[in-house]
Specification:
Blueprint (H helix, E strand, L loop, with lengths): L2 H31 L19 H6 L6 H32 L5 H11 L4 H15 L6 H24 L4 H8 L4 H12 L1 H16 L3 H6 L8 H6 L11 H21 L1 H9 L5
Helix pairs in contact: 1-12, 3-6, 3-9, 4-6, 6-9, 7-8, 9-13
């Protein structure tokens, strides 16, 4: 292969290496979930024979995984909706209004999302115990908002800044108020960025573990990530690796489906403003 051909193939080889590196853990998780319990430590690339016993074990009523999936959907969905609602108005104000210390405020907003989760869990656990919030959805949603909201505000502020001020001015010339211009003109145009932010926020809330683990001790209110960590085997000292792999696949599939269905909108939102 000559130098020119090698140079043409190099980007594809790099992309292939990155894709392989990212998908290899998921592939091994799928393969392991399809092995029998007796074959779970087999190192072959394909399961032989293929078995669905791990998936049947996941939905054993004793595990409560179906309820845990519903809890994860409620927590992640409400967190995303609230974060997106508040972040849209906040980000628009930060992008369009001029006031003192705006840059400092933006820095503080993003800085709050960088706090280690463990640093807020202990004081919140004490607070929620005092007000009776333990084993409730709000005990998981409110702390998750402290990380989801800054991320959403930061992403949307950057997006709104890339939109020209002339859009609102033209709408107001046509008789719209500032609020109507925002609702009828800006929001539809900003849909790709808002949708991308919603996907990122939902994924972060769906994968959250430490807050859900600390704020709940009742199986009926635990999320899927917590339920997986508490799977029990046939005996007290057995770790059900196959069931955990199967549950991991089931938890990952909704995120994969969302990305595949809305990949064009996600790409549009991530690349918006790159070329004006």
């Amino acid at each position: 292969m000559n130098r020119t051909a090698w140079r043409n193939w190099t980007p594809y080889l790099g992309i292939g290496a990155v894709v392989l590196y990212c998908l290899a853990p998921f592939y091994w998780m799928v393969v392991s979930s399809l092995r029998r319990t007796s074959d779970i430590f087999d190192t072959s690339l394909l399961p032989a024979p293929v078995s669905f016993e791990n998936y049947r074990a996941v939905f054993d009523p004793a595990q409560g995984f179906a309820r845990a999936l519903l809890n994860s959907l409620v927590v992640a969905g409400v967190t995303t909706a609230l974060a997106l609602l508040l972040a849209t108005f906040t980000a628009y104000a930060m992008a369009r209004l001029d006031f003192r210390f705006k840059r400092v405020i933006l820095t503080l907003i993003i800085a709050t999302s960088m706090f280690p989760v463990v640093s807020i869990v202990v004081p919140l656990l004490k607070l929620f115990t005092d007000i009776g919030w333990i084993n409730t959805y709000q005990a998981m949603i409110v702390p998750s908002m402290s990380f989801a909201l800054p991320l959403a505000v930061w992403n949307l502020t950057t997006f709104f800044r890339q939109m020209p001020d002339e859009l609102e001015q033209a709408a107001m010339v046509d008789g719209c108020t500032r609020g109507q211009a925002f609702r009828k003109v800006i929001i539809p145009i900003a849909a790709p960025g808002i949708f991308t932010t919603a996907i990122i926020t939902f994924i972060a809330a769906w994968n959250e573990f430490l807050i859900a683990l600390s704020m709940t001790n009742r199986p009926s209110i635990q999320t899927a990530t917590v339920a997986i960590s508490k799977f029990s085997g046939a005996t007290k000292y057995e770790t059900p690796f196959g069931s955990q792999m199967a549950a991991g696949v089931l938890v990952t599939i909704p995120l994969v489906i969302i990305v595949l269905l809305f990949q064009r909108r996600i790409v549009d939102g991530l690349t918006a403003g790159a070329a004006k």
